[in-house]
Amino acid sequence: xxxxxxxxxxxxxxxxxxxxxxxxxxxxxxxxxxxxxxxxxxxxxxxxxxxxxxxxxxxxxxxxxxxxxxxxxxxxxxxxxxxxxxxxxxxxxxxxxxxxxxxxxxxxxxxxxxxxxxxxxxxxxxxxxxxxxxxxxxxxxxxxxxxxxxxx
Length: 152
Description:
Blueprint: E1 20-24, E2 27-31, E3 33-35, E4 39-40, E5 43-46, E6 57-60, E7 64-65, E8 68-73, H1 79-90, E9 96-103, E10 109-125, E11 137-143, E12 147-151
Antiparallel strand pairs: 1-2, 1-9, 3-8, 4-7, 5-6, 8-11, 9-10, 10-11, 10-12
């Protein structure tokens, strides 16, 4: 039987809007959208010779990481990413470690991703219509060598 006199437990509400802080070196950048924060651990089907019947074993294969895509409205004179991009897109690759934090409504981190050996592979500014009034969007695609996730 349900006790109607007790107070229901507090159920946290989801954050109202995504708000990400990305730290590149010593500089902080802010983005509205981050995708690709996925660590995929595929498996390999194997049939060992000693097993009877048609049994298969699932074995882990090397971990695979998607590229990370960072999106935000265009900000004039934002140097951290723009200084990093020409070095990588035109000459030798320079990797950097990144910290990506999903912030709550108060600006405090909820989830933090530590991204290792990241380097930009693509930069794009959204198409603009001559009579449109939408915000221009910067999009940066970042390849990396792995990441860890922590729940703050």
